[in-house]
Each structure stands twice: as structure tokens, then as C-alpha cells.
Amino acid sequence: MARVTGWIRRLLDKPGSVDLAPFQRIVAEAGELEAGLRDRTEIMPSDADRIGADRIGADRIGADRIGADRIGSAEFCAVVREAARRALGERPFDVQLAGMLAMLDGHVVQMATGEGKTLVGALTAAGFALRGRRVHVVSVNDYLARRDAEWMAPLYGALGLTVGWIAESSTPEERRAAYVSDVTYAAVSELGFDVLRDRMCTDPADLVVPAPQVAIVDEADSVLVDEARVPLVLAGSADQGVALPEMAALVRRLSRGYHYTIDEEGRNVFLTPKGTDTVEKALGVDLYADPGVVTQVNLALHAHALLTRDVDYIVRDGRVHLINASRGRVAMLQRWPDGLQAAVEAKEMLAASETGEILDSLTIQSLIRRYPEICGMTGTALAVADQLREFYDLRVAVIPPNKPCVRVDEPDRIFATAEDKEQALLEEIAERHATGRPVLVGTLDIAESERLAEALRAKGLDPVVLNAKNDAREAEVVARAGARGAITVSTQMAGRGTDIRLGGGRAEEREREVAALGGLYVIGTGRHESSRLDDQLRGRAGRQGDPGGSVFFVSGQDTLLTAYLADESLPATDADGVVRDRHAAYLISHAQRVAEGVNLEIHRNTWRYTRLLERQRGELMERRDKVLHGDTAARAMLAACPERYRELTEAVGADAVQRAARQIVLFHLDRCWTEHLGFLSDLREGIHLRALGRLNPLDEFNKESVPAYRAMLDEIERRSIETFEKADLTRDLDEQGLRRPSATWTYLVQDNPFGSEWDRILSRVAGALKRRKR
Ligand code: ADP
Ligand code: MG
Known about the structure:
Layout: H1 2-13, H2 21-38, H3 43-48, H4 74-88, H5 94-104, E1 108-110, H6 117-130, E2 135-139, H7 142-158, E3 163-166, H8 172-179, E4 183-187, H9 188-198, E5 214-218, H10 220-226, E6 231-238, H11 245-252, E7 260-262, E8 269-271, H12 273-283, H13 291-305, E9 313-316, E10 319-324, E11 329-330, E12 334-335, H14 338-347, E13 356-363, H15 364-369, E14 373-378, H16 385-392, E15 396-398, E16 408-409, E17 413-415, H17 418-434, E18 439-442, H18 446-458, E19 464-466, H19 474-480, E20 487-490, H20 508-516, E21 520-524, H21 531-538, E22 548-555, H22 559-564, E23 578-579, H23 582-629, H24 632-640, H25 642-652, H26 654-692, H27 697-726, E24 744-749, H28 757-773
Parallel strand pairs: 1-14, 1-15, 2-4, 2-5, 3-4, 5-14, 12-24, 16-22, 17-22, 18-20, 18-21, 19-20, 21-22
Antiparallel strand pairs: 6-13, 6-24, 7-8, 9-10, 10-11, 17-23
């Protein structure tokens, strides 16, 4: 009976989450073994038997010697706990061992901020490595990759494992060295760029990344869901982007409402008939007879009307830097699709940056899905459990906190107007601060951070602002946000990975003092588009059983409500400008659910298109690997043109012919793939026009892209044979039309909240056309 009710309770509490009972039993057993290990000076060698390894210590354990089935046992838990205690001075809590076991089983664990997920991830990585797997720990940025690798290094050392890390500045040699370690820490973008760069290698000796085996994803919701659609791009050969200064100057003169309108969600901008006339007169063209001009006008208008400096991007050192919407920080090297990037540069009157042909691209989702084994950890996983299952076949294990959370989450303070809200916010901050309690203010964008900080300074307070403009000091500032009297203003805190200790450091006396004041108080200046991001912010307070509090301020003029609540508005305010009606809270969470639904639909739609592309890419890369590592190319050429093959062999020798055949086939394979990518993106664009004629765009896309792929394979062969017949092998092949891009570079295309470029452009063209008909 007890068992049944437990089971039902679990279903009611956490739909779809993994049952922890088996893990908890193992952890309990491990607890009984602990004392026995404590006093032994040499736990490692003798206890190695227990986990099936013949030796754990100074040397790497031969992967074949390990009884992989012992990893994850109670003995294993006891040994790694003791190893962590000795190597790091931190004895893993029961909940951390349970988290490790769930991850070893291939789940995403939800553990609150400050529960020690870095250690859990390292224990898990060690487990997989001792099973003989190569492990990549996927971090959200370079700083965290390096910090975590260095922090956990003594633990790996104690277990006889090696660890390495990769940063943007790492050289190819350093990268190769890091990848041969048992465990490698790297930011997701670096992993992806290495995969893409390897894509262009023509000599196996130049390859950097080994075959993917296990990915342990930190901040899993951020990487696997929020950034899943972000394409990592490899571009090459310089091709100057179109300069759009005239367009920028033109749209600057247009006014909203009269010349153009913006849709309710702020995702699209449309020219009115009046605006169309004005633009046509100014440019002296018939706008819709010239798609190239329409595109330029629309891009300029988009940059002008929908993208806001200091909200969507900042300008620094004469360049446009995007702000990553999900983390509120400058995303290095991220850029919009070329046209939009150039339009924003023109708007800001900057020189156009270099653009290039896209040689290959890979979404973060596809990058992670290459790994046969995936697991992850984050403070907020349950809210995206459906997506994790749908896109990665992952399940969520909700690990309870080590100490119960005593943070007080106050109900939202709701106001009719933004002014009333801001006024109340300032008062609240000043009041809390007056008691000495540290206050962390989470804002929705940088402009708001700056504005708020300015207002606080005007009141004589001294806030520290943490935003994309000073992310170099990020970790340091966050770590100090728990100090007595600190006021920290920051854009979104999700995925920042730095722990906020009360007192701002390790001194216990200061920590106790701040705890006595009530701990960290978190104030959100608005609800995010997803309740998960709200939870990430709240979670900054009340870590490890600390006292703490949180509250969100909301106004009826917040974008969340204006964009996602179609007709309904908030209930009336009381005399003091505060909304107290219970229905308001319902409306706010409703708006969040609508926003989450819209984002999920965009994710699904992108995935429907990319899935096919990824399959083709995967298949082609397998062919490429065979060519790169074997004599496939030579055999194909021999079969296709035996005469020529013999002739060449006699002239320059068998080895040289084999090398040339490989070089020729790889060149055409890469070239044709680049062209195929271009074709698919044109196709997708055209398909949307057909969608207006009521055909299912996805079906149409699939119907055409599959034969196009087959035709591409034939084309690779045809071109290769043609080159092989003509080539002069005594001369450099580069000079005979096989020149590869002289330089390649990589970047991330910012996950585009406005839909893809063609979605935007086409919906606007369609909108303008519809309007014109009337
Ligand atoms: P999370 O990623 O879950 O937010 P971190 O891994 O950054 O948390 O760890 C938060 C803090 O908790 C770190 O200072 C770490 O040293 C500490 N910590 C983690 N596990 C333990 C443990 N078992 N015993 C003591 N301190 C721990
Ligand atoms: Mg962390």
C-alpha cells in the first residue's frame, strides 16, 4: 500500500520524472561502506577490486580491465566519495551521489543552484571514463570550462584519470591534447567549431576531434532547449557584403504607424501602402517587381524598427555585438544572418564586416545528438521535460536539495503602469538595502539595467551593474553579490554558473551575519518569457538551505503581457496603483504559457526542416570519412577510368595517384555540399511562397530535397572523374581549379527570435501584397 501511494504521489508531483528509489537504495548502501574506507591510508589500490578495476591510483586504468557493470554500484559510490573528500576536501552529499547515478543512467538531473552540480558532473564523468568512454563535459562558456576542469583536476588525478579543457584561444595542438584526455571540458560552441573545421581536413593527420561518445551537458536546459536551434557556421572565402547605407538612411525617415506597422509580438514589420509609395518614390523603382530591393528594404526596416541598441545588441569597438537573449551577455562571434548583420551595421553607420559563403553548418541540437550517450544537469529541467524527451529522448530526474530550501518566494507585485512599477521597485530596493541585506536585481535587458542603476545612484545608492558590457568581471561580481549591503543589478542570471555565497566569500562569520539579516533577496523587474528563467533567477537565493527571498514586479505594460495576452488586460488597480485581484496572477502565467508555446512551435518547425538536412549531412560525412581514411577515392577512379589510372600510375607512381584521387574527390564533395546547402536554403525560401498556394511546405521541401541530394552524389562523381581525366599530377592541383577557401572562420548565428530570414521577409512581402490588393 505504502508503495502504491508513493508511486501515485510521484506521478502527481513530478509528471514524467525518473523514479529515484533505486538510486537512493544504492546511496544508502554506500553510506554503510564509508567508515570502512575512511581510515585506510591506501584506499585506492585495494578497493579497486570492489569496482572491478585492478588498480586505481597513479596510473590510468586499462579500459578493458574494468568491469563496467560495477560502475554505479554502492562500492563505486563509496570509493568516489572518499576520493572526492581526499582530493577536493568536499565529501559528496547523498543527493549528489544520487544525481551522479541518475546521470550515469543517461538522465538529465534537476538540482538547484548551489547544490554542487560541478562535482556531480565530475563524478559522473569519472564513472563514464572508468567504463572506458571518452567524455566531453559541455559548458556554456570558456570561463566555466576551464574553471571546472581545473577545479576538478585533483579528483580525476586521484582516480587515475586525465582531464583537459579547450577555450576559444586554444591552438590545434592544445585542442588535440585536450581531446585525448579521458575527460574534456569545453564550451558547446568550441566543440561544434572543432567538428566543423575537421570537416574540411584533407589529411587525417590534421583531424582534431575524436569520435563522440559521451556528452555531459551543464546548464542542460539552456544548451539543449534555449540554444538548440543556434547554427554553428563555418564560412570561407571573402565576399564583401552589400553595403546598405542608403537603405538605412531611407528607413530612418519613415515613421511608425504611418509608413510602417509592427505586429503585436514585435516580430514583424510591414510597410503600409503609404510607406510603399514613399520608398518607391525615393528609390525610383517598382518595389515588388524587384525582389532584391524588397529584401534590402525589409532588412533595413527590420534593423531600424525591431532591433534596439542595448537590448538586442551593443556597439563596441566599432562593431555590432549581439546580446544573447537567453543569457543577457555579449555572445562573442555571434551574428545574425549576413543580410541582417549588414543592415544593423548600416543602421549604426559602421563599416560592413566581412561576410562569406557558408561552407557548412550544424545546429547545437545536431551537435549534441551525435553523441550516443547524453546526460546533463541544470537547476530547471522539469519545465522542459517534454522537449528533452521529444528532441533528445532524455528523461528528467528531480533530485531533492541537500538541505530543504527555506527561501521565501513572495507573490508578484502587480501594477497597471510601468512608471508605478519602477517607482515601487526603487523603494523596495532601498528599503531592503537599508537593513544591510544583499539585494540582487534581475532585469530583462541591458537598457533596463542601466536605467535602474542610474535611478538608484540618483537616490545615493551604489549598485554594481553586471551586464553584457562588462562580462569580463562577471564571475567576480556575481560571487560578491552575497556580501552585506551589496546591490547587484544584472540581466538574466540563467546559465551563469557562478555561485552566490552569503557574505560574499568563505569567511563564516560574515556568512552568518548576512544569514541573520535574512540572506540574499532577489528582485525580478519583470517575468521572463518562460517561468523556467524566473526560477533560475529566484534560485540564486536560498542555496544550500540558506535563508533568502524573492519577488517579481510586473506591470500591465510589460512586453510579456502586451505581446501574449491578446485582448485581455489586467484587472483594475486599487487606489495606490497596485493590482490585487487574483485573476491577474492567472493572466501572467497564461501569458507565459502562450510565450512558451510559441517558442516551442518555432523550435519544432526548425527541427522539422533541419532533421532532413542533418540526415543527409550525416550520410555524406560518413562517405567523406571513408574517402579521407581509405582508398575509396582511388578505387572509384580506377573503376571509372582504368586507362587513365594506369597511365597516371606509370607517370607519377601509385602513391601520388592515390593522394591525388583523394584530394580531387574531397574537393568536389565539399564543394557540392556547400552548393547543396545553398540550394536547400533557396528551396526553403521558395517553398514558403508555395505555402501561400496551400501546399504543405514541409512535404514539398522533403519531396525536392531528397532527389537533390542524390543528384549531388552523382555530381560529385561526375566532377571528380572530369578532373581526374584532365588533371596534370606533376603540378599543384590547387592551381587547376581545386583551390580551397583561403581562409575559413566560424561563428554562431544568433538564434533568431524573429524566425528565419526567409520567414520574416516572406511574411512581410505577403503582408504587403495582401494590403495592396485592397
Ligand atoms: P551548482 O553548479 O549546482 O550551482 P557549484 O557546483 O557551483 O553549484 O557548487 C556550489 C558550491 O558548493 C561550490 O562552492 C562548491 O565548492 C560547494 N560544494 C559542492 N559540493 C559540495 C560538498 N559535497 N561539500 C561541500 N561543498 C560543496
Ligand atoms: Mg553550475
